[in-house]
Amino acid sequence: MSTTSSPVGQVTGQGTAQAIASAEAHSAHNYHPLPVVVSSAEGAWMTDVEGRRYLDMLAGYSALNFGHRNQRLIDAAKAQLERVTLTSRAFHHDRFARFCEQLAELCGMEMVLPMNTGAEAIETAVKTARKWGYEVKGVPDGEARIVVASGNFHGRTTTVVSFSTDPEARAGFGPYTPGFDVVPYGDVAALEAAVTDRTVAVLLEPIQGEAGVLVPPPGYLAAVRELTRARNVLFVADEIQSGLGRTGRTFACEHEGVVPDMYVLGKALGGGVVPVSAVVSSAEVLGVYRPGEHGSTFGGNPLACAVGLEVIAMLRTGEFQERAARLGDHLHEQLGRLVGHGGVTQVRGRGLWAGVDIAPEHGTGRQISERLMDRGVLVKDTHGSTIRLAPPLVISQEDLDWGLAQLRGVLAES
Ligand SMILES: *Cc1c(COP(=O)(O)O)cnc(C)c1O
């Protein structure tokens, strides 16, 4: 395969170079992808336009928890494609009630409000918490406040970036939506000090994914639960990335025995097939809505519900959670051996989810990611020198070990 002088690297062939050059010319540069152009995928593996195979250790930021083209999910989607795909919410359809019922049950909650993307579900959570604050808690109109954590990632809409602490995500997009108070993640005292009688919700990721797979100190989530309950404030858990099996439990909150007032779900809920997100909560909270007050043309569409129902059925057996826990223990045991020597300074995470800090002398996170790509492993760096590992939960232990061997190899040679 011929190589080019393009900046995408020497191993890159013509098909790859052309696809990337064309994408650069015709798409906004709001991402900086690794120079690989995927054309097919199955399970934990992807194949590029040159026919090279790669182990996917990112899994679409956990949207692909069940692997690429999981047969059960593809079958469910195909069957629904043959029946009806979209009705809008102007009419009922025969998948909707069951999806909502089953999702509420999986969450131990009562009601569901389906949307499409994670950011939309967060927007929905914000609107819901405010409305609950005014109608149920009795906060004076227009004065509701929501407490969030530094280092958060909840999506990319204007309201959501308004309470981001990442200058890249936020700068240049003002004016910002008011009504948010930011406290340090993991700091119970700071949270307690920030809560006032105007506070309607505390919105947190039980593990901060984009921040580098940060696990809060033990007892933090339980303390947040206790505090929010005592102060009549909703505990909103953004489990878009941490939920649905990734950490070895259905929800990351479970590791501390915590049940929030509201789950925000997305990513894996659509099985890597379609975008499906949802807010799941009690009848008291989601009961605040009346017709016309919120909605989405595609939210809760038949195809989304059919795929989502299959995702829920797969999670109900517990086998994916058990697998994530077992392989996760193995992953963290293996990564732990690289700490101190072997180029790793710190490892965090739970289940099949790890943030791996690389000693700077071994290169930036981006450089490590590129060297892993050359060895057939796809990962994503975050915040300079952290590599995030989140393989599909269906990965075999052999493949996981092979991927880790490539990481050891990259660190050894750099
Ligand atoms: C990905 C993510 C979001 C946003 O989801 P989109 O579907 O990209 O809008 C929100 N919160 C968390 C924790 C996420 O990981």
TrEMBL record:
Cofactor: pyridoxal 5'-phosphate
Enzyme Commission number(s) of this protein: 2.6.1.13
Pathway in which the depicted protein is active: Amino-acid biosynthesis; L-proline biosynthesis; L-glutamate 5-semialdehyde from L-ornithine: step 1/1
SUPFAM superfamilies: PLP-dependent transferases (SSF53383)
Gene Ontology MF annotations: identical protein binding; ornithine aminotransferase activity; pyridoxal phosphate binding
Range of residues in the leader sequence: none
The entry's keywords: Amino-acid biosynthesis, Aminotransferase, Proline biosynthesis, Pyridoxal phosphate, Transferase
InterPro entries on file: Aminotrans_3, Aminotrans_3_PPA_site, Class-III_PLP-dep_AT, Orn_aminotrans, PyrdxlP-dep_Trfase, PyrdxlP-dep_Trfase_major, PyrdxlP-dep_Trfase_small
Domain of life, per lineage: Bacteria
Family: Belongs to the class-III pyridoxal-phosphate-dependent aminotransferase family.
NCBIfam families: Orn_aminotrans (TIGR01885)
Annotated protein name in UniProt: ornithine aminotransferase
